[in-house]
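debug: dumping io for the single-chain case to check the tokenizer round-trip. Nothing else runs in this session.
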Amino acid sequence: MGLRRRRPEQGPTQNARSIRHFAIYGTLYGMTKTTVYLDTDTVLALRRMSESQGRSQAELIRDALEAYTARGKRPLPTGMGKFDSGRSDTSERADEILRKAAKKGRWR
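debug: decoded output
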């Protein structure tokens, strides 16, 4: 779908306006637009599922990805569990430890 050429006095075409406004079209109501390439069998199954459940394909994809990512293990922060302070009460003393470190300028 190409842009139609128009004289400057006629103003931009609908296609040109759409392209110009594309910059703001990407995040809507806390969601980000993305593109996913699917094989033909998956597309057909998704369409059938969408029609039979009366839900949009986008909604089905969001639900599936949400369930998949919820099952995945999140990596531990760097260094987590790799060092032994020799103390068993570190978590209970976290506020005290951070306060002392801040006073000494070791933590900001």
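debug: round-trip ok. The beta strands are 27-28, 31-32.
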